[in-house]
Amino acid sequence: MLRFVNHFSTKNIDPFTIEKGYEALRFEAQSGEVGYYDLPRASQPLVGEVEALRPAIDKKYNTIAVIGIGGSSLGIKAIERLLRPGTPNAKKIVYLENSDPISVSQVISQIDKPRTLFIVISKSGSTVETLSIFKRVIVAFDLKVEHSDQVMVISDEGSVLAQYADENGLRRFVIPSNVGGRFSVLSAVGIVPLTLAGFDTLEVLKGAEAFLERFWERKEDHLLQKAAYYVTNAQRFPMNVLFAYSDTFEEFGKWMVQLWGESLGKRNRRGERVGLTPIALIGSVDQHSFLQLIVQGPLNKTVTFMHIAESEESLMIPQLSLRYLEKSDFVNGHSFNELINAQCMATMKSVIESDVSVDDIEWKKIDEHSVGGMIIYYELLTSASGALLEINTYDQPGVELGKQILEGYFRE
Amino acid sequence: MLRFVNHFSTKNIDPFTIEKGYEALRFEAQSGEVGYYDLPRASQPLVGEVEALRPAIDKKYNTIAVIGIGGSSLGIKAIERLLRPGTPNAKKIVYLENSDPISVSQVISQIDKPRTLFIVISKSGSTVETLSIFKRVIVAFDLKVEHSDQVMVISDEGSVLAQYADENGLRRFVIPSNVGGRFSVLSAVGIVPLTLAGFDTLEVLKGAEAFLERFWERKEDHLLQKAAYYVTNAQRFPMNVLFAYSDTFEEFGKWMVQLWGESLGKRNRRGERVGLTPIALIGSVDQHSFLQLIVQGPLNKTVTFMHIAESEESLMIPQLSLRYLEKSDFVNGHSFNELINAQCMATMKSVIESDVSVDDIEWKKIDEHSVGGMIIYYELLTSASGALLEINTYDQPGVELGKQILEGYFRE
């Protein structure tokens, strides 16, 4: 269960703006132009297909190596990290993503080849980091790729990687062509590796589906209000902070940063540069780091607090009074979960009192249903904000120039 | 060796501003008001003291558990992560920092008590997260604290934690009172755990000392130009991005975020809210995430690129041409280090062409000397920016309110 409370004033938001946001999303979904709206339901049969593969996979492999970067890894990591404490027996997942030689060689050195299933993920099929690492893996492990059941591929239909997979008889899964990389976690991209690892992805999809239905029924309009507020005040508040109170949100924050930043940082139809800058923080650590800037620095940020009411982990702060340290005894006998939640509430209160625009998202607990709901929430929020900014939320033209320059360096 | 190139135009910067920055730092250092300037030299004898303890420690312990948060952990993690690949035999360091019940119980469950040395770090001595976790550790491991050589304390002279340590006969190290938490990594805070773990902290200090000397000799004025540029353009560019090309910079980025954000987000002498927002990114991962926003979003950010010319790790991209995937063959036969550096250069070029203010920091390689230099570089940059913003760079009044509210919750 998720609970949403907007603490900013919505009285200056034009109701028409909210309708415009809703209608834009409705149109995107119904026209079939944007495919992620279908994924919560459309990916459910995929879970069954992948589950059917599991007995054979379980027998041979205890680790999944995901070879992918950006939209092909961030979402998987986000869900894995959130659900891992509640699914301790899921297979280990390792990520080969950055072209950093130290990381790549470290991860490769830890892989037990016979027990590892490799999943190569690239929407375009031509991501240079992913293909370079894949080549390195082939050579490092003397991997016989042809007709191997140790390598799977996830890519767009017809991509060069898909053609490579077919030629070599590799099992292959498709990302629908109308689903962008950063919106793809509920497609095969996330479902295949997470299901094979043993996570309950069906519940994730059902959670997303339930939230989406409520949204279409106009029962989650807080989301449209928030998008309208962000876009209306984009000049005043160019930054949007997500302050999540649990280390398990670290990768979720990175996923959100890609989704928000890459979708909304654009030239609009008039060629003007628009965009909102995402910042992901972790409480209570960043209370000792970034909070001072929020509370007393320029009022140029909105802040979303996120916290978990009930934790699976009931670790207690002992009833232990240490001489000279009695000042901290006020938390004795409480759980660490009570402490971190109280820190969230106290910080939220002090941030609101500093005149910062705040909203609050409470998870009853971390479970599959809420994870799915939260993913679709951020995707819808992004789409609504993009529609109101009058940009193409789903492309990323700005990163092409760098790729061309890169090729130029090597071809010279 | 570090090489600094500012790609932004300095022609509009008042030379007087640069002199003002330099003189402010000179005054802070000479008056003794701000202590971190002394650390590169003053901490050198401490390394010897700690080295003298090592034979006894090495015999008993193979792991160091750092109990601390914010300024008491971020700097240690930053240096450890950067130097670990070149110092693979250093003792394992685990961090108990967040009051997140899942993390705390996970780290505690992995600790082998008889082989672990616990170091409790808190400048004020009363940090609630740190003391709560310390109590949990005492109970979980039935730790006999009195006169134990298994627990060390690092805190301000006279703090409650220092008094507790003395009463119990624990070995204790002091953070100079004129050194703030986020500026303390070159004090006992960083030196004690890193030296005990086996890192060459003397070289880190010497690297910092060498850079500092060159700065005082006016041989590193690029730093003052950058601070002057940032402050002069703070309204136009409220955000400062560090885009570092290696996963090993991840914790360095978090350390920088605390230093920059908490130091510069303040009310100035006229009560106005000032501040610059730090954002830490990792290349090439964030080329697939945040880059679009930098290149086509609003021109409200400066970007610092950081990269390593030579890597210890010579991992190669194989000369392997895979049918259908030939488009990525342009990097075949090159090293991953060449690839990630070329990605940095290409991205930097495309960002400069997008009219973003850029500077470039090149490390010849990651070594202790450069790590020390880079730490003092960011500290000086922060101090110079704070002086030009006319704020108190070294306090953090904004986080007090939240702490009071927190106590209120529990005392009710």
Which properties best describe this structure?
Rossmann fold, alpha/beta, homodimer, 15 helices, 412 residues, five-stranded parallel β-sheet
- Put simply, the count of helices of chain A is 15
Query: How many structural domains are formed by the residues of chain A?
Result: 2
Neighbour order of strands in the largest sheet of chain A: 1-12-11-7-10
CATH superfamily of the largest domain in chain A: Glucose-6-phosphate isomerase like protein, domain 1
**Shape type of chain A:** globular
**SSE order of chain A, one letter for each helix or strand:** EHHHEHEHEHEHEHHHEHEEEHEHEHH
Structural class of chain A: alpha/beta
CATH topology name of the largest domain in chain A = Rossmann fold
Low-confidence stretches of chain A: none
Description:
Chain A has 412 residues and is α/β, with parallel strands linked by helices. The first copy, chain A, has two domains: 2-30 and 204-396, Glucose-6-phosphate isomerase like protein, domain 1 (Rossmann fold), CATH 3.40.50; 36-199, Rossmann fold. Chain A contains 15 helices and twelve strands. Chain A has a five-stranded mixed sheet with strand order 1-12-11-7-10, sandwiched between helices. In chain A, helix 3 (44-60) packs across helix 8 and helix 4 packs parallel to helix 8 (188-197). Chain A is globular, with a radius of gyration of 22 Å. The relative contact order of chain A is 0.16. The mean pLDDT of chain A is 97. At the A-B interface, helix 5, helix 6, helix 7, helix 11 and strand 8 of A face helix 5, helix 6, helix 7, helix 11 and strand 8 of B.
